[in-house]
Amino acid sequence: YNCIAVPQSPEALLYTIYKQRSDEFRKLFKEVPESEKLIADYTCALQKDILLQGRIYLTENCLCFYSHVFRGTKDIISILREKTAKWIPNAIQINTNSEKLFFSSFSAREKSFLGMFRLWQNFVVLMCPCHTALKLCFAFRCDCLGTFLNRREC
């Protein structure tokens, strides 16, 4: 007999995609507490000597970037809209105490910027004395190298 796939509802499809991304995030950033929920994720590239393709993951207390060839942890001091080629508005700059990190290749730069900026802004507004800045965590080959923050510990 014929087997016909039943289309999923939009809600079921969105949940499936969210579940896949959340599982992927958990595998990449194993040190993130289970209580941290994935809020959003964005495909992008970090511009260094070469363009490092990866994905940014946002949780309540952490902004994480995963690429196969880059790692580190930084304190974020500001997040800005930027341009590539001096006139194309499709990049985001994340400033740390030691460097400026330039992310580009967003499919929806404004949506990505607003998600990251709101996370950073909320953290700054709700910051407790035990934390100095929101952490930007970079992972390399599925190892989490960042310090994750939890406001509930304050």
UniProtKB/TrEMBL annotation:
One of its GO terms (molecular function) is cholesterol transfer activity. CDD domains: PH-GRAM_GRAMDC. One of its GO terms (biological process) is intracellular sterol transport. Pfam families: GRAM. Residues 23-83 form the GRAM domain. GO terms for cellular component: endoplasmic reticulum membrane; endoplasmic reticulum-plasma membrane contact site; plasma membrane. InterPro entries: Cholesterol_transport (IPR051482), GRAM (IPR004182), PH-like_dom_sf (IPR011993). This is GRAM domain-containing protein. It comes from Sinocyclocheilus anshuiensis. The lineage of its organism: Eukaryota, Metazoa, Chordata, Craniata, Vertebrata.
